[in-house]
Amino acid sequence: MTTYDFKKIEKKWQENWENEKVFANYNEEHPKYYVLEMFPYPSGKIHMGHVRNYSIGDVVARYKKMQGFNVLHPMGWDAFGLPAENAAIKHGIHPDVWTTQNIQDMKEQLDTLGLSYDWDREVTTCKPDYYKWTQWLFLQFYHKGLAYKKESRVNWCPSCETVLANEQVVNGQCERCDSAVGKKMLNQWYFKITDYAEDLLADINLLEGWPNKVKIMQENWIGKSEGAEIEFEIQDFEKSLKVFTTRPDTIFGATYMVLAPEHPYVTELVKDTEYQEKVKAFITKLQHMSDIERTSTDTEKEGLFIGRYCINPLSGQKIPIFIANYVLVDYGTGAIMAVPAHDQRDLDFARKYNIEVLPVIRPEESGDTFTIDTEAYDEEGIMINSGEFNGLRSAEAFNKVCEALEKGETGKKTINYRLRDWLLSRQRYWGTPIPIVYCDRCGIVPVKEENLPVELPLDVKFTGAGLSPLTTSESFIYTPCPQCGETAKRETDTMDTFVDSSWYFLRYADAHNENLPFAKEAGDYWMPVDQYIGGVEHAILHLLYSRFFTKVIKDLGLIDIKEPFKNLLTQGMVLKDGAKMSKSKGNTVSPEEIIEKYGADTARLFVLFAAPPERDLEWSDQGVEGCFRFLNRVWRLVEEALENNKLNLPSREMTKQDKDLQYMIHKTIKKVTEDIEERFNFNTAVSGIMELVNDLYKYKEIDKSTINGLLFKQGIETVISLLSPFAPHMTEELWHKMGNTTSVYLSQWPKYDPKAIVRDEVEIVLQINGKVKEKIMIPSNLDKEGLERIALENEKVQRFIEGKEVKKVIAVPKKLVNIVVK
Ligand code: ANZ
Ligand code: ZN
């Protein structure tokens, strides 16, 4: 008997699968199935999180292949980004060299896991053959008015020296380096994702196979608010002030107005007044505060009166105008009507600055003398202090107020979204160059499609200072204007790397296309991704951007689908000692070490067995040992059976033990299939297989002469097949030892026989015209219909009723069937 030499076996089958193209092999006669794991950033080393993510995907891919699907399971590299550039600054290595080396290293590590990727479709976002199409897509967006440039106040990380999207600012800090994020005015490129806000929101309904929590996060991020835009006349000023409110019903309670300090009116309103200096000082003070900080309920409300007044369009009241920290310039209209009685932030502010608090809605159960103390009343109720609207329910008043405003042309219902346009410019080298040229004569000119890709130059200096390193490359900057031919300058900013990952799943469908990002036919065939798997940290940004890209690409006529990812699985973290495994915590276990010691099959089995995929997984050395022992046990089971010739024993009449084993085999097939198929409960699937292995051991111990060789063989083959998505190398080896000459993944996933999993039987009688003709054993849970069928198909019964007319069949479950004939 040979021992389980995982090193030899794993290498052997990895090479074999690659050479025989077992997985890079397509047959369009079968239904397609596209399984995808989020592609990694090539940091140079895989960690346990990767092992978990890819093992989950690999189970799905192998399982679906055995189920007869035409499976697409590709892999690639999200290869642009800051770490490569930082390495260049620090160690003087070119980002391209650094990245290419890391990809090579990581690919070797991935190969040791035996993942069923089709590497022929590998996508690397930093290669010109890929970013050419990222640029091409940018141009299509540009021509549709969905990519535009504007001067704006952007989040600026002083340490990374680049702008950040709102999404990359976490609690006021840079997502990457944790520095406090400030604000800066810059002229930047944007994608107009807000044009798709409504579609992105509405189509969340189509995402049936997504976790609810992710759908809610997307919904909150888009942040739809229904309300009204109301115009307040400003005294002695030619323009009126527009505010956005979700509570037009509270308009009579607006006792002051607030402008964001950065609101364009502010300087004009204080121009010739004593307030000018104070306002300036206030704005300077706020510059270092993030939006989150400013609007947090914990932050002290601060502001000042600017010496001007508005007129309430419905009540005619004169109300003072303030600027304050808690109103943001880029939400709504950048100005609010403040209603302290019904909004907590306004109330805190009003109490601090001694502003009137006027309740205009009272709870139904309270009287007209309702007052507000330190807590705002933000619910619905009955209107008070609101002129003609008094006595109405506030929900009703909402509409009535809007109607009144519309009549007076001072307001209308509107919808506001929290979602902002996507800022994509980065002052960075290692990203996709934005294919735009600035010409003194022609202005902003897109690069001609036939001149794509705009390639990254090599003669750049990585100084680490402010501007994009591309500004240091003479060869890059100067170029003839695509329109007039005069010398012009290229855009030196590159794209946010989220742009690269917003369409990579489409490129896999047709990875070598030289004329388009992908052929429509290929896209329509493979998309949507049937199963997408990745970390929940991408629940907002990456998924939202990918959904947006897919929708635009559809509107460009390049594909027919509306949503890119049909089913989404967000896997949990890998923990050790209760904390997330991470380099900074120093609690990592290296996949290389585990694979070296136990083999990839054990590593895979452990991460799949130790917890359901969506839950966090606690690392356990004993758990790994246990999985290793189990695989050894399976190995010995098969080896011994082959050695002792147990599989060649003749079959014969079934004994009780045979029947028990047969039952277990079919029950396990059913369980494992359902666990994988319906719930991705890989852990319970594996424990089901473990039980079957135990049963086979027990069965093998019974007297050799009484073993049913055919059945035993079926049991062993079932274990091999069911285990093959989880521990692929060992099972492939055993499959071949069993005498098969082609891959287990080209074989059929086992099917259970529904009859074999019915355990209890009862005896019933079959009667013809009330006379007992036969007694038979049947499954006890058979219903009336099943009973009737069995009775009528019974041989003896058929002889009796031959040539006669069946008038009626009376079936009494568990007892009898009476057939009335004439
Ligand atoms: C009057 C009012 C009365 C409000 C009331 C609320 C309650 P969401 O749901 O997030 O859309 N608001 C509007 N623009 C703002 C800005 N740029 N910065 C800070 N706050 C702003 O919130 C909409 C509400 O937030 C708006 O409705 C406005 O306050 C405030 F009893 O207007 B409300
Ligand atoms: Zn020009």
Automatic annotation (TrEMBL):
Q: Which GO terms describe its molecular function?
A: aminoacyl-tRNA deacylase activity; ATP binding; leucine-tRNA ligase activity
Positions of short motif 'KMSKS' region: 580-584
Question: What keywords are annotated for this sequence in UniProt?
Answer: Aminoacyl-tRNA synthetase, ATP-binding, Cytoplasm, Ligase, Nucleotide-binding, Protein biosynthesis
Entry EC no(s): 6.1.1.4
Q: Which parts of the sequence bind ATP?
A: K583
Every Methionyl/Leucyl tRNA synthetase domain range: 35-180
| UniProt-listed Pfam families | Anticodon_1 (PF08264), tRNA-synt_1 (PF00133), tRNA-synt_1_2 (PF13603), tRNA-synt_1g (PF09334)
Every copy of the Methionyl/Valyl/Leucyl/Isoleucyl-tRNA synthetase anticodon-binding domain together lies at 658-785
Task: Domain (Leucyl-tRNA synthetase editing): give its ranges.
Answer: 219-405
**Record motif 'HIGH' region, residues:** 40-50
Which NCBIfam families does the annotation name?
leuS_bact
What's the family?
A: Belongs to the class-I aminoacyl-tRNA synthetase family.
Q: What protein does this entry describe?
A: Leucine--tRNA ligase
Identify the species of origin: Natronincola ferrireducens
Ranked from the top, the taxonomy reads: Bacteria, Bacillati, Bacillota, Clostridia, Peptostreptococcales
